[in-house]
Task: structure prediction
Amino acid sequence: MALAEKYLPRYTVEDYKRWEGDWELIEGIPYAMAPSPYGVHQKALGKLNTQFGAQLQKCSKSISLYPELDWIIDENTVVRPDLMVVCKEVEEHLKEPPEVAIEVVSKNTAQKDEELKFQLYEREKVRFYILAYPDIKKVRVFELKSGRYDKVFDSDDGIFSFTICKDCTLELNIKEIFS
Result:
């Protein structure tokens, strides 16, 4: 461990609640959110939201879609996935793992999304982790199997179908996300 790492200050959710700006807190270490996402990022996020939102209308009313909602994992960790599918209504903040966590990856967020959050979401048992890459028009889907993520989809084309919460099936149409 590097000397500076040994002396990094650690923060809690209570500290996090008082901060201005957009932050995530992972194991007591604050991470500034990237500046406002580019249009291509927001467009992909909007299309994912629309695509899943329309499909969830056919599922149980207890299944909800939440863009950029804080997920308080414990007293030292708060993250804000770009989009989450949760099998219950959430009043304030999510306090248990979502069924699906989606991150729209940019050059500024790639390391955090592909490594740090990948490991965190796997550890916290998020059933499906979806990474959408608007720059290359590609989607990767990981499913938790035996406590580890298994890549179950990696393509710039096609439709990926998966079942969540009480047999609710969702379809991810890649071309629609990036059109």
Summary: Residues 39-56 form the longest helix (18 residues). The mean pLDDT is 92.
